[in-house]
Each structure stands twice: as structure tokens, then as C-alpha cells.
């Protein structure tokens, strides 16, 4: 079991009145081999305050345990106005194209497609033996622009088989001279909140 509720809650900030976070319960074929597809979103929640996360914690844990799914949260905050505008544009396009059944998924899709977090972080995913590379990689990242010499690590999140490092953006061109970014760098991925 991995429970990162307190860690994540302490990290979340709500820099504007329009700030929120997207949290999803996802069932994976890896843990549920009888599934016909690789992933299935069981439920999506929108977190508008730390209290929201507290109030949902028991329900999320219960659902994850019952459904054998994981809770993921993107720690890059979203802006209600920007997401709403993107959702409106996409809804209009779907109506124009007579794709009415897809409208139900517009808000969730708009959340995933809308960037622009005030406190943007990227995710480095270390599994198994890769965890041993963490210090070496962090030292390299901290030496890169912007702000060489400044610690870019914002959060270390335990996972089932390793860890996620949430880091401030850095010079990918320089980094890729040493490591293949495709191996473990994700620019806007969610991290683990809970695994049964």
C-alpha cells in the first residue's frame, strides 16, 4: 500500500481563487488482467481546497480498495477560467460536428489539455534500480539553466516500485546529452496519491 495523502496535501497550494487540481481513480490492466483495455477511469474529482482532499480521503481509499484501482493527482494547478474557455470551444466544435455523445467528457479532457500552472513542475519517474540514479540525476538537473545551483526538486513522492520526483523545469537539451528523457521524464503527468 502507498498512501501519500498527507504528503500531497501539504504540497498543494491554491495561488488564485480559480486554482484547482484534478484527481482520478484509475483501474489498470496490470493489476486487473481481466480488463479489455489498458486503463479505465473509475472516477474524477476536482480539488478546490485542502479540505476537499481531507473530505474525500476515506471515500477514495475505500473505492481504490474495492475496485483495485489507484488514485492519481496532478500537482500542477489548473485555472477554472482557462479550462472553462477550452471546454466551451471543444463543446462548440462537437455540436458543430454533431458528436453529441462526446460532450459528456469535455470538462475532463479540457483539464488534461489546459496547461499553464503557476507553479509548474515536471515528473521524473524512477522504478526499481533507476532509484539508484536519483542523486546523480538531481545533481545534473540542479546544475542546469534556469538558475544553475538552485535545488529544483519540489517534492519526492513514494510509488509502489520507486519514486516520483517533482522538479522545476530545466534545460532538456542539455539534460538529453546525458540521459534519454523518454525513459523517465514526463512534463505534465499525475503522481501517486494512493495505491491499495
Class derived from helix and strand content: alpha+beta
Oligomer: single chain
Give the number of DSSP strands. 10
Shape: globular
The H/E string reads EHEEHEEHHEHEEHEE
Q: Average pLDDT across residues?
A: 95
| Tally of helical runs | 6
Distance between the termini: 5 Å
Q: State the major sheet.
A: 6 strands, antiparallel
Amount of beta strand: 25-35%
**Into how many domains do the coordinates divide?**
3
Low-pLDDT residue intervals, each spanning 5 or more residues:
none
* Helix content bin: 25-40%
Rg: 18 Å
Care to give the gist of this entry?
Helices cover 33% and strands 27% of the residues. The protein is α+β, with helices and mostly antiparallel strands.
Describe the overall structure.
- There is one protein chain.
- This protein has three domains: 2-78, no CATH class; 79-113, no CATH class; 122-189.
- By secondary structure, it is of the alpha+beta class.
- The chain has six helices and ten strands; from the N terminus they run βαββαββααβαββαββ.
- The chain has helices at 5-11, 50-67, 80-96, 106-113, 134-143, 172-175, and strands at 2-3, 19-28, 39-47, 70-73, 78-79, 122-127, 153-158, 162-167, 185-186, 191-195.
- Helix 3 (80-96) crosses helix 4 (106-113).
- The chain is 33% helix and 27% strand.
- Strands 1, 2, 3, 4, 5 and 10 form a six-stranded antiparallel beta sheet that branches. A four-stranded antiparallel beta sheet has the order 7-8-6-9.
Amino acid at each position: 500500500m502507498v498512501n501519500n495523502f498527507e504528503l500531497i496535501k501539504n504540497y498543494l497550494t491554491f495561488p488564485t481563487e480559480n486554482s484547482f487540481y484534478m484527481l482520478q481513480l484509475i483501474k489498470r490492466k496490470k493489476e486487473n488482467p481481466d480488463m479489455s483495455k489498458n486503463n479505465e477511469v473509475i472516477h474524477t474529482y476536482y480539488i478546490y481546497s485542502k479540505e476537499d482532499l481531507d473530505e474525500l480521503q476515506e471515500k477514495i481509499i475505500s473505492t481504490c480498495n474495492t475496485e483495485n484501482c489507484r488514485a492519481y493527482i496532478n500537482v500542477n494547478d489548473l485555472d477554472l477560467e482557462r479550462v472553462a474557455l477550452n471546454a466551451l470551444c471543444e463543446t462548440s466544435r462537437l455540436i458543430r460536428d454533431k458528436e453529441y455523445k462526446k460532450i459528456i467528457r469535455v470538462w475532463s479532457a479540457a483539464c488534461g489539455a489546459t496547461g499553464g500552472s503557476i507553479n509548474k513542475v515536471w515528473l521524473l519517474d524512477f522504478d526499481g534500480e533507476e532509484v539508484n540514479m536519483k542523486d546523480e540525476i538531481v545533481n545534473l538537473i540542479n546544475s542546469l539553466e534556469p538558475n544553475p545551483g538552485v535545488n529544483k526538486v519540489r517534492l519526492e513522492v513514494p510509488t509502489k516500485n520507486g519514486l516520483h520526483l517533482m522538479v522545476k523545469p530545466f534545460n532538456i537539451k542539455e539534460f538529453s546529452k546525458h540521459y534519454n528523457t523518454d525513459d523517465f521524464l514526463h512534463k505534465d503527468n499525475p503522481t501517486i496519491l494512493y495505491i491499495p
